[in-house]
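Cast an eye over this sequence plus tokens and walk me through the fold:

***
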Amino acid sequence: MFSAQGLAGMRATLAADGYELEAREEDERVVVTITATPEACEDCLAPPEVMRAILGKSLAVPADAIDLHYPGEDNA
């Protein structure tokens, strides 16, 4: 459903600022989890709504189909 090439690009971009990104499909949704490494730049991560829009373009899916989880959120 989502672009593997876009996912790889986003992973590389976020890794440069100390973040890891995982994405998976659940029915018609894309669940994206961003986690911080010890080297993460806290000021470098865009606000969730901005990140959702960027991910939508990168992954080639509608932004409103993305469930986004940020570092420190309870993702259980």
Q: What stands out?
A: The first strand starts at residue 19 and ends at 26. The chain has two helices and three strands. The beta strands are 19-26, 29-36, 66-69. The radius of gyration is 12 Å.
